[in-house]
Design a protein that fits this description.
Helix content is about 75%, strand content about 0%. The chain has about 325 residues and is an all-alpha fold. The two termini are about 35 Å apart.
Length: about 325
């Protein structure tokens, strides 16, 4: 049927290419796990190791140091964000871990906790803060500080429950490995920022592709290992649905808690917005690589990162809605 004159009142549906790529990676891992698994035909586990270092080097180059300097003095905002990121949320994760163990197979309960123990995201929380009219300098500072603290705190927090979940985890070895793969390349990028920031800043789209491709590869290798080991064959759809429900509850409680805390201490509107997006969100870009180091060689890695993948999608959808509400 031909439309007569004028434009359609329906907005075009925007497809999230990153979500599509992650989904295709999981499907590919299920169909042919031997190709992407550790030591498999493609040898992607070696590519991933160096790819992660390259990504964090690029992050270091593009990190706006001048924005950090502008945001450093707002101590109430920083205290609130990090108290939520590495305090309240891991406590909620600990409750979810303990409560879900009788109902969920390992390592899904550990995955629920891990999703709450990783650092805040950088790109989306800063972008959403900007869209909503919030304190962008404060968001940049907190997202960066959270990423650095996460190198040390995420392994330490995860070790609290890893033994209970039946996994051996050396905190010192994990921090050393993560620092070499994440923190050292980022610092190297900062040192070279005066020379590389301009050329790479003009190619942000290409940098974003490299960033997201590395995450997709890590997910592909992790899920390939899990499918090859038969871990998913032992996981029911009921367990997956319960995991999704608990993840949604964790995100909802975190979001409400950040808002109420920000208003209770009297943060101005701009800081409240930054606190909301930095304090309730979790980083896939940091969490996936860190998990690949913490649980290297564990066939259950695909299940460990599943709640974080779900949390990531929830925060993007909810973040867009909340940003529009602040604008309205």
């Amino acid at each position: 049927m031909r439309r007569q004159g004028g434009k359609s009142g329906l907005a075009p549906v925007r497809v999230d290419g990153f979500l599509v790529a992650l989904t295709l990676a999981i499907v590919a891992a299920a169909v042919a796990p031997e190709l992407g698994a550790t030591g498999g035909t493609l040898g992607l586990d070696r590519v991933v190791k160096y790819g992660i270092a390259v990504v964090f080097f690029l992050h270091g180059v593009l990190l706006p140091t001048e924005s950090l300097a502008r945001g450093i003095r707002n101590w109430r905002l920083h205290a609130l964000v990090n108290a939520m990121t590495f305090g309240l949320l891991p406590l909620l994760g600990l409750v979810a871990f303990a409560a879900s163990r009788p109902w969920l197979p390992e390592p899904l309960p550990l995955g629920l906790f891990y999703a709450t123990a990783v650092a805040s995201t950088i790109s989306s929380c800063v972008a959403l803060t900007a869209v909503a009219g919030g304190n962008v300098a404060g968001a940049v500072f907190n997202a960066t500080l959270s990423g650095i603290l996460g190198v040390f705190l995420t392994p330490a927090l995860t070790s609290l429950v890893a033994t209970t979940a039946g996994l051996e985890l050396s905190v010192i070895d994990a921090i050393r490995a993560i620092a070499l793969q994440v923190l050292v390349p980022m610092l190297a990028g900062q040192l070279l920022r005066p020379w590389l920031a301009g050329p790479l800043g003009r190619r942000r789209a290409a940098v974003s592709v490299v960033d997201r491709a590395s995450i997709v590869l890590v997910v592909y290798v992790a899920f390939s290992d899990s499918f090859r080991a038969g871990v998913w064959a032992q996981t029911s759809w009921t367990s997956l649905a319960l995991t999704a429900t608990i993840t949604l509850a964790l995100f909802a409680v975190a979001t409400i808690a950040v808002l109420r805390a920000a208003r209770a201490i009297g943060l101005p509107r701009e800081d409240e917005i930054a606190a909301l997006f930095c304090g309730s969100q979790k980083s896939l870009a940091t969490g996936i690589p860190v998990a690949s180091v913490l649980f290297a060689g564990d066939p259950g890695l695909g299940l460990v990162v599943l709640p974080l993948l779900l949390y990531h999608q929830l925060q993007l959808v909810a973040g867009a809605v909340l940003a529009r509400r602040y604008l309205g």
